[in-house]
Amino acid sequence: MDTPQTIDVTDYIDKRNFNAFNFQLVVLSFFVIMVDGYDITVAAFAVPPLIKAWGVANPGAFGPVLGASLFGMLFGAPLLGHVGDRYGRKTAILICYVVFGVFTLAAAWSSSLFQLGVLRFLAGIGIGGLLPNIVALNAEFAPRRLQATAVIISFAGITLGGSLPGPIAAYLMPEYGWPILFYFGGLVPLLLAGLIWASLPESIRFLALRDRQADVRAMLRRMDPGTTPPPESARFVVQVGQRPPFTDLFKGKLAVMTPLLWVLFVVNLMAYFFLVSWMPTLLASTTMPTQAAFATMILQVGGFLGALAIALPLDRYGMLPVVALFVLAVPVVGTIGYVAHQSAFELMAVVALAGFCTLGTQFGINAISALLYPTALRSTGSGAAFGVGRVGAILGPVIGGRLIDMKLPVQDLYMIATIPFVIGAIAAFILMPMFSERMRTIGPGR
Hints:
Layout lengths: L5 E3 H6 L5 H34 L9 H25 L1 H18 L6 H29 L5 H9 L1 H7 L1 H7 L1 H4 L2 H21 L4 H6 L3 H11 L11 E3 L16 H31 L4 H21 L1 H7 L2 H20 L4 H28 L3 H31 L4 H7 L2 H23 L5
Parallel strand pairs: 1-2
């Protein structure tokens, strides 16, 4: 009796071409995560009118509110990431959409800082849970040689989504008030949940791990229509190796490289979320509110361009582009406070360049976190860097609020915001030769 053929799904995917199915998945994921990006930044645009509506004497009191969703993301990523591992990526993504949709919509009726903070924390759980599941879904369908490209492009939607509250704040908020921001942020994901369920595929590796052989075959036909499928007797499996312990992140030269990578994540996310959280409020005090909203939108658009621009230079020059962006960010961010009183064109140009530097750097170190570690340790290493970096993301809005309460001039606040970039430039410069040696002697991710 013949032994049934066993096919490793991972090997099968790695031998495929990147076809129309993968392209459609990347595009759909781009738009799915764009909605997530909107909900990450939406509260920042509501702060200026809320200061007046609620009679808040100190704008810095909104610091914990702006950090609340980021704090929720810290819990949502592992919690709903586990849901994705247990019940499927598609199921987890749908749950995330419902969670942050419901609580973002509820924020439209909040009447105090405490209520808004609690609702933003709960929404953050759903926001944070979406990111690892979208990344995993695209990585698990793409051939290994194109996994990074698929993940980067799909993830880039978060930057454009973060810019979308700008036009709504500029054109609709003056007539309909601040709740309109949360109406859009809540209703859109709830209305799109059904479309996601109908259109988004379930991870084929998840199906194979759960031994759902009929579903695996159906997915293969969807992935490669018109091709001859493997024989009916074939059984699809996923080889899962033993995960190395967390302490391996600090063995050998990684004992220095891992902490340096964590520093890069913390300082860059701290500076970025200070910029994106407080820019509508700070610039509204120096220019027209409409320009302040558009400037925050332009920050995200510049970041989108930076995310796309970093990929090829990173492959060719290693960490040099990351060091360059950290260094460039120092004068650029420091200049924002000084051009706020100048022409709109000068302000938008400087803000766009600031977004280019900060988000270009972030996407660069995201990729470095995957290249730095061997395959067996890659998920642990990247996940740890993202988790530690989230601490910086939470501290950025909170520390910014404390500084604003000190009544410092806008120019001084943006000069202080350059400090994390100085630290990042030093840490990246120290890490650069070690990373280059790693790539030269061992190879990326091996």
